[in-house]
Amino acid sequence: MRQIARFLLILCLLAVISTACQPAQASPTQDLNSALTQAVATALAQLAMPTLTPSSIPVAPTATAVRTPPPLPSTFQTDLLNPLDTPHTYMQDSCQYLLDKWNPNNSAPGTVVMTIMFHSISKDKATDVNQISAGDQKKLMNDLHDMGFQAINMQQMADFMERNARIPPRSVLLIVDDRHFASYFDDHFRPFYEQWGWPVVNAYIAKDERPDLWAENAALSAEGWVDYEAHGVIHNIVITNSSSDEFMLGELQGAITNIQKYLHKTPIAYIWPGGGFTPRAAQLARQVGYHLGFTVNPRGPVMFNWVPLADQVDPQRPYSIPEGPVNDPLMVLPRYWDTDARAHLDTVIQIGKQAMAYAEQNKAAELEYYDIVCAPTYGPIPAAQ
Fold first, then answer.
1. Which residues contact 59 (CB under 8 A, 6 or more apart)?
2. Does domain 85-366 have CATH number 3.20.20.370?
3. Average pLDDT over residues 89-95
């Protein structure tokens, strides 16, 4: 209807124009009939063409590229571990793991921690399987230093294992089991603290007795280089599947209470007395506030989100309780024995190198996955500071 009206209007206008513009004498170069014919044809063409406005012009939809995240690589494996000791992870959130792993302000992939247990250091020749001579202990410490290891304390260990906080690429955690007088640390560990700034951890038996021992160790704790952690209260009764919750809480919470009382600090790690632990004990340890737990099982070194554990009894090492059933790798971390640690220094270094190479091999895929899946929620990987 609107188009017909426009057509009639155009014809009327053409008629008026034709009449008004009629010359008195026709010019040889002007053909009015031809002009009118052309005007009518133009009008008809306009009627056939819809009036277009910017909003009515169809726009082809812009195609949005759909990015498919690549699959994440499997957990790093190495043939340098005992066949029944396999790597276990503990980070449930893949995005948080990748963010912590590739944050350039954190520890680089391949950073390893070798935890070493010192049970007894003899000034003379060792006379027991649980002893190391002072001479051999010094050789071990010097070899660690010469091969590029640096000692860390328990808070550094927890921060590294939980969120990949920066520590030396080759770190060693030195844990001395049981109670000792100050002279023990002065003789065997202070020289390395004074030379290299190396701290040492004491897994302290927190019996509420011997004020003299507490006082000497409190003085060392105040100096800052001996880091006291929990090693039970009664201590000489090993936790087993038959242990009651009451007994286990007495050992776990009791150690916290007494260390707070005498040393004015709260332990964050529990070194299982006699190497005894159970899944229930690990749950209770978490419940009262421990971040880490340590066995006497020498499975290997540890890395961020990577802990070698056994899932079944090894016939060749029946004394080592399988840690896999605990389902909490951070509460059953392995420790090398001091008498055997020197033989494994190069193995620890090689595992770190292999892990670093594996991480670099998969870096592009992991970063692409993070960019597609994680970055919208977790933000981009931070820049180096």
1. none
2. yes
3. 98
